[in-house]
Amino acid sequence: MAETTAESSATFKPVDFIDQIYDQTNAACSRSIAFGLFDVRLCGALDFGWLLQQVECFGVKEQELKQFSDSGLIKTWTDEEDIRGFLLYTPEQVKTLKSLQKLDRYGAEELQHVMSSWDADIECTLEVLPYDDPDPAKERRGKPVSTGTFLRSGRARSREAVRPW
Questions:
Q1: What is the rounded CA–CA span in Å between residue 20 and residue 3?
Q2: Within a domain: 77
Q3: Which of 3, 59, 61, 88 is deepest in the core (most CB within 10 A)?
Q4: Is residue 143 within a helix (H) or strand (E), and if so which, with residue range?
Q5: Do the beta carbons of residue 42 and residue 52 sit within 8 Å?
Q6: Counting Cβ atoms within 10 Å, is residue 55 exposed (0-12), middle (13-18) or buried (19+)?
Q7: Does residue 88 lie within any of the structural domains?
Q8: Has residue 110 been placed in a domain?
Q9: Cα(58)–Cα(55) distance, rounded to whole angstroms?
Q10: Which residues are CB-contacts of 136 (< 8 A; sequence separation ≥ 6)?
Q11: Along the chain (165 residues), what's the average pLDDT of each consecutive run of 10 residues?
């Protein structure tokens, strides 16, 4: 985990920690990371202790969080160096899971299904899908295609599709 200048956990500020991660990434990679809630490159630094600190304010105790993690309700992720940890978004998942449990309306299997589906949605956001072209101005069939041209032709196709005649 990245070292912080905090003297104790009582003086730790998440903003300082995030700033340090940002600075370290710039130094190591010579460019800024796209700082996102789902960035798995950060999960090595976002360990169980970090997650516990983030969710204690929601009334989640260490043993309960360990149970969530061990049972797979809260997923651990792996960074490029195979270090397991959590995403910046994970505290929100823990908060929601705790709220759903408090309702006492969902069984263990239903909660597992909800959390697994949520993780699958997150995994989908981590990938660049094969049909997503990061450069829409790339030449296709000899003609450059701009985003504006694509959108205009898409709107025209939509209007043609809804014509009642």
A1: 8
A2: yes
A3: 88
A4: strand 143-144
A5: no
A6: buried
A7: yes
A8: yes
A9: 5
A10: 145, 146, 147, 150
A11: 51 72 74 67 88 93 95 90 89 94 93 91 66 52 47 45 45
Considering the domain boundaries, does residue 7 fall inside one? no
Question: What CATH number did the domain enclosing 118 receive?
Answer: 1.10.1660
Question: Quick one: DSSP state of residue 11?
Answer: T
**Number of independent structural domains in the chain:** 1
Q: Output the six-digit token pair for 96.
A: 């929601």
Indicate whether this model's pTM tops 0.70.
no
- Residue 75 to residues 86, 115, 123, 135: CA-CA distances in angstroms? 7, 9, 11, 33
Give backbone dihedrals phi and psi of 162, rounded to 5 degrees, phi first.
-100, 5
Residue 78 pairs in a beta bridge with 84
Backbone angles phi, psi at 140, to 5 degrees: -130, 125
| Domain of 110, in residue numbers | 14-126
Of 93, 102, 88, which is closest to residue 44 (Cα–Cα)?
88
Instruction: Look up residue 84 and give its DSSP letter.
Output: E
